[in-house]
Structure formats: C-alpha cells, structure tokens
Design goal:
The protein is of the alpha/beta class and 738 residues long. It is 45% helix and 14% strand. The strands form six sheets. The chain has a six-stranded parallel β-sheet with strand order 3-2-6-7-1-8. A five-stranded antiparallel β-sheet has the order 16-15-14-13-19, with no helix packed on it. The N and C termini lie far apart (91 Å). The relative contact order is 0.08.
Amino acid sequence: MEENSIFEKAISFVNQTNQSIFLTGKAGTGKTTFLKYIRDHSHKRMVTLAPTGVAAINAGGSTIHSFFYLPFGTFIPSNRTVWGGENANIYNKNQLFSKAKLNQNKRTIIQNLDAIIIDEISMVRADTLDAIDALLRMVRRKPELAFGGIQMIFIGDMFQLPPVVKDQEWESLKEYYESPYFFDALVMKEVEPVYIELKKIYRQSDQLFIDILNRIRNNEVEEEDLSILNEKFDPYYIPDAYSGFITLSTHNYKTDQINQNALDQLLSPPVIFKADIKGDFPAHIYPVEEELILKIGAQVMFIKNDKGEERRYFNGKIATIADLNEKDKTITVEFLDDNQTLVLEREEWENLKYDYDKEKDEIKETKQGTFSQYPIRLAWAITIHKSQGLTFEKAIIDAGQAFAPGQVYVALSRLTNLEGLILKSKISTSSIYTDPKIITFSENETPEEALENMLILSQQVFAEQSISMAFSFEQEYDKCLELTKELTRKAIPNKDTAGEFILKQLERLKVLDQTGQKFKMQIDTWINSTDKERFRYLNERVQAGAVWFLNIVKNLLEETNSHIKEFQLKQKTKKYIQELKELHQSIEKKRIQLEQAAVVTMGFYAKSNISIIIQEVNKMFAPVPIQETSDFNVPKEEKISSKEISLSLFNDGNSVKEIATIREMAFSTIYGHLCDAIGTGALKAESLIEKEKLEIIQNTIKSNKSLGLKELKELLGLDYSYEDIRAVREELKYLKLI
C-alpha cells in the first residue's frame, strides 16, 4: 500500500469514524506532520495534549496534567483508600475526583469534545491514562463507555523514550498493571485502537543504516550490525570548530558542561539576547533559554522549522554564529554545508488554553501567553531526551550510561546517515535492549491490506451509533433540570410565569428522554440484527420515530422562542435569557440530529455508498451557534435602548399601562419614555392626549412660555397631569413654537 494511502486512511479514521487509533512510525516517518494536518483540517471538536510542557508547546496544545487538573503522583484504579506517609502522593478514584477540581468551564469543554489527541504517548504512564478515563466517564456521565465515548488519537513511537516510573511508585502499581506503558492501562482492555504505522522514512536514505536501526528497534540486532556501528568508535575524537558535529549524551550535566566549556574557549565577547515573555508562560515550558548567551563562532542548532518559502533551516540543523550586533540585537548565522549566511528573526511560541465558545458551539484555543526568542540553542551537545524529534547530519553519541530502553535507538535514529556517526563508547547488546512488551505490542499492527475493510466497518459502526444517539435526550433533560434549579435562586420579573414554562419544558423533555431510551433499545436491536431485511425495518422505525420526536421538538423550539421574546422585554433577565438560548441551542441540535438520522437510515436502506452516508452523519455533529437576538424577532439590547423598546410596544397598539405591566416598570417611567419620543418627533402628543385636553394645554403653555411645569400645573388644575403637560411642552419645543 502506498505511504500516502496509509496517511489518508489514518485521516479518514479520525474524520469519518469514532474509532480510536494509535498512529506510530519510526523516527522521521511523519508523525508530527500527521498531527499538524489533523489539527488544521479536522471538523471535529478536539484538544491536543502531551505529557510534558515542551512537548505540549511543540504539539500546539496543553499538558495532560494542566488540562485535566490531574494531581501529580500515582493513581490507583480502585476505591481502596491509601493514607499518609509514603502514600502521600498516591490517590484512588474517589480522591481523584476531589483533587481534580474541574471548574464548570472545563466540564463544558469535556462534555462537548469529539476527540482527544495525545502526542508522545510512549511517555504516558498506564495509571495516568486510567485517571483520564475515570474523569471523562464521570464528567460526561457515561460510566459504561471507555473515555466517556470520546475518540482517542494516540501518536508516538513506543520504541523511543518510555514513561518515568520510580521503583517506589511501581511497588504500588504492579498490583494493577503488567507494565507502566499506556497500552497496559486497564481502560485499554475495553478500547481496541486501530494500530497504524507510517513506514516511509524521510530522515534516512542509507538502506544499510535503515536496516540496522530496524533490527535494533526489534531486538534482532546481529553481531555484524554491532561491528559496523562500532567501527565508528573513537573515544578521543575532538571535532574541528566548524565541523558541525553535535554530541548526544544521556545526562544534562554532561551536555551543559560540554556547551559551557566550548563557549568559554571562544575569545569573542558574549552577547545576551533576552526572551520577550508576555502573559502566562511558565518557566518549565520555555522552548529555549530565557537568556541566550552567544559568542561569534559558537555552534548553534535550530529548534524550529523555517516557515519561510525558502526553507533555509529545519529542526536540528547546525549552524555557526557569524556575527552578533549587540546594539541592534541581531544574529547572523552561517550554514556549514553551503557557507551561506542568514540574519535570524525571532520566533514566537504560544501557551494555549482550551475554552468552549457557547455562542459558536466550538472548542477554541485561547492564547494565555507568548514566548518570543531566536529559535536556536548552543549545540556542541544536547541530551538524547531533548533530541527526540530532531534531525542531525553529524553526531557524536555518548550513550555509555544509557539508563532507559530505547535511548540508544533514539540517539542513532536522529542521524541521516552512518557517515556522520562518531561513538564515544562502544554499543553492546545490553545497551540496546528493547522491552519485549513493546515488541509484543508492536505485533498488533493492523495489516495494511486490512485497513480499507476496517475503515468501511468503522464508518458503518459510526453511522449506526449516530442514528441511535439522535434519540438520546439525556443531556437536554439535564440542562433543563439545571435551569429549573437555577430559576429558584433567581430574582426575575414574572418568576411564576417563567417557572411554569420551564417545568412544562422539563416534563416534555422527560417524556422525550424516557421514550428515547426505549426507542434506542429498539434501534440497537435492529442495528445488531443479522436479518437480511434489518435496514428496511430499521428505516421504517426511524422514519416513524423521527416524525413523532420532531413534532415535540419543534413545539419546544417554538415555545422557547416565544418565551425568550417575551422575557427579553423585561429587566434583570439577561442571564436567564442566555440560559434559555443555550437550552434552545441544545434542542436545535437534536432537531438536526433527528432529521439527519432519518436521512442516514434511508441511505443504508437504499444501499448508498458509505462515504456518502458519512457526509450526512457529519452534519449531525456540525456546530450549532446560539441564535442572535434578532433571530427571536427582538431588537438587540446593546443597539436599541429601553426607550425605543417602549416606543415599539406603543406603536404595536399597547397602552402605557399595558407596556408598564409587560416590562415590569412604573407607569411614569414608560410615559417618560414616550415623552422623550415626542421630543424627537418620533411620536405625536395627540396619540397620548385627547384632542380637547391637548388644545387647552397647548394654549396655556404658549400664553405662559416662562412658567415651569409646577406653575403650569397650578394654572391648569387637577384634571391635567404633569405627564400630559410635559408631553405637550416637548412637542412644542420640537416644533420650535416655544
């Protein structure tokens, strides 16, 4: 199967099914490209998470712990209580729910998610994944569904860096887990992700080197492989200043020492370039040093790909500092391969947070802070851990103290070819040990020839589940129930009327919820049936059911519209109106889903192509924005004043007394609104005052132009109100008669 075809199949699994997937591939096969493509081109509401801060910044998302508010420590997937002492950082399910204090905004985000991407999954522990699963089931109120029914997209290479588990932590975990790897999480026994591997290697082109890396990866290394690698052993090799070699080591202290010693040997003065940090950007996720200390002649490495059209550099490319301008704060680098120079520009990294936009019904990324700095770091040395994802043409590998399975493989696989390799210590069989559990897990790869059939099957299951889901009203009932509770705490006008309306809607939604549960059971029976005529029977039931449900749903929408229109005229109802709009939005989603369920079922009965059916299914999950005020036939409050609303109601035939009742305002306030309208010419005084009275007031005011309202009232007597006198005087002023 062509590599592009595998890539496209993986995208189809994400966009056209609810099937969870594990996307993997050797170093340099395009996993990051896949992640970015999905983020930019999927219609689904999703978030991107990673186990570390730097990985999250690089993936364009958040850390797992910050998104879920997970407490740091060890999660025990049971309700067994663990107390104090050495167990202070151990928590069970009940403690998880109390420690992970998810606010309402985060709960809303989780409830509206379609998919979650977890990048660098090799570093995610099994207990962390089970903690995520427990929270998702609880927040989404779907305890029977793994991950609360959310599609999970795991991306990473299990042959690279493993999760970090201390011996003491493993003592607590080994009772529950076969290994600390994510695939041994308890939830993974319920989830069978499609295992998709990208195989075309873009980093290396040397077939001999590719074959050796593959055998190292699979614990199949041969003596000849070790012999070829160890020919590169040269413990005393010292690279020339401009050779472009970078040392990969296992520990931070070693790389820091190498970089500092090399920088100190340069005679040119140091220049400091400070990062520009705005907003919230924690130090532990800085992608590069806050203070970049450089000298002319220093060897540096790019930590980002060039976004320009020429693509002059890539993540991991080595260069030398050719010039530093301290006054203008500019950096010029020289590339070793072509002696070309480039004046660098600062790059900006964003610390993102996820929010749910209720108005647009979308999960959106909000910028919490930015970190602006030149995209380079000193590069005489770097740790193997930090090199993950980078590409080097020349490297000195010092892995004599390799402390984790996969580290030597990660280091070697950074290189583009064998020619650029120098070993500081020899590689033995023991230093390239790969955990057999990972090799066993890798045997779960879905055969390429089976992907097409699995995709079609997953598309069909997704479509069938969507039909059943359309008749579930649990979320709408819960939303209305919450609104009922909220209403008891509100101080709004006509509260009794609002209460009667909400209780009526709640009762209808309860009927829809209860009936929907029973109807779903019938649908699921036909979906799971082996009867050849199952789609005919299913179509008959769904078409009839959709009509019954839609009749009630449309009544709910119409009455909610009317209720919103009525209460938008009243004061102190802004929050109540917003909650009504959100309920309306949720019911409108169900209307669309019910109509589409009928279309999808008809497609199955007509034996339409599955890709056509999926197009109709996707319409069921499209965002449904909250209706604007104008859509409820009511003027927008921020554009139309209270006085204009009173005038509009008066022009509609309502008396001043009736308007005062409708708007829960004083009679004098409404009359004052109309007097102001008379003063602008928008209303005539004769529409408020009978003709005979009007003429007497006009004549009195014209004959006594210098008198105020009080004096005029005394002249006219008890039969004439202050409001009438003011109205006539406003009109005479407008007509410039006084």
